[in-house]
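Bumping with the actual sequence this time:
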Amino acid sequence: MPRMAPDIVIVEPADFPRTVALRIAAAIEVAVREHGNASLALPGGPQIKLVYGALAELQLPWHHVDFFFTDERGVPSNHPASSYFPAADVLFSAPRIGLENVYRIEAERADHAAVAEEYETRLPARLDLVVLEVGLDGHVAGLFPRSAALTERERRAVPVEAPQKPRRRITLTPAAIESARELVVLATGRDRAAVVRGALREIGDASELPARLALRGTWLLDRAAAALLSGPSDSA
C-alpha cells in the first residue's frame, strides 16, 4: 500500500471529547455549506461514547444532518453492545437533534444479508464524513484483520463474522470508507499505541491492520495512543 500523509493530531485526554466534536462539527458545516446537507457515519465503541455529550452541546444545523453507522452488532437496539444505543441515549436525545434523520442498521434481525442490502440502499452515493475507531487489534468498523470483507470493492455494506462476541455484525466496506469525503480516526489509551504505530509508521496493507484504510484521514490521538510514534506531529 502506498504510504499516505495522515493528519495526526495529539490531544490531551481531558480535551479529547471536545476536540473530536469540533472536528466533526467542522465537517458538518462544510458539507451543509457546499451542498445543503451532511451525511455522517458514526462508529460503535468506547471512544466515540466520550464524544457524544460534547457534540450534543454544539449549535449546528442538525436538521440538515443524516446520521448513519459504520457497523452494528447483532443485538437489540437497546443493548449495551449496540453501536446505536449510546448515540440514541446521549446524542439523539438532545432536543435540537432527534431521530428524524437517523438511519439505524437493524442488525437484530436474523437475515443479515437482507439487512445489509437494505442499508446500502439508504446510504448516500458518497458519505461526507466517516468516523472510525481503532480497535485493539487494528480493526475499524466491523473490518477485522484478515476478514474477507476487506477485499470488497463493489458492495458498501455487508454481513461479517467478528472474532469476538457479538460475532454476527454488519459493516460498511472499504468501498464506502475510501469514497468518503473525509475520514476522522479515533484512538485513545496506551493499549492502542502499538497498532497506531503499525498503521501510521510501518509498511503493510489493510489485511494486517484494517486501520490503514484510513491513512488519508485525520487521526485524533490522546498522548497515550501516540506514545510510540516518532517524527513531527500536530497538537490540538
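The C-alpha cells above came from a reply further down the thread. The helical segments are 16-35, 46-56, 84-91, 112-122, 174-178, 193-201.
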